[in-house]
Design brief:
single chain; mainly alpha
Length: 67
């Protein structure tokens, strides 16, 4: 999708330098993906301590890999 944006040039340059990404499009896509990822993690953290799992970690650790 093509969109025209008015972005601060210095901000884009700094993001490209920090991430070693060569194109403006890729750096913006990466930033959006990271924003979404962090938002999802934040939503999951709300469940910390509220989900009861009946899992025996010792039995999971001792089972064989199926690869």
């Amino acid at each position: 999708m093509r969109t025209t944006l008015d972005l601060p040039e210095e901000l884009i340059k700094e993001a490209m330098k920090a991430t070693h990404i060569q194109t403006k499009t890729k750096v913006i896509v990466t930033a959006l993906e990271e924003l979404i990822r962090k938002s999802k993690i934040s939503e999951l953290k709300k469940f910390k301590g509220k989900v009861e799992l009946d899992i025996d970690l010792n039995s999971l650790r001792s089972r064989e890999c199926r690869f």
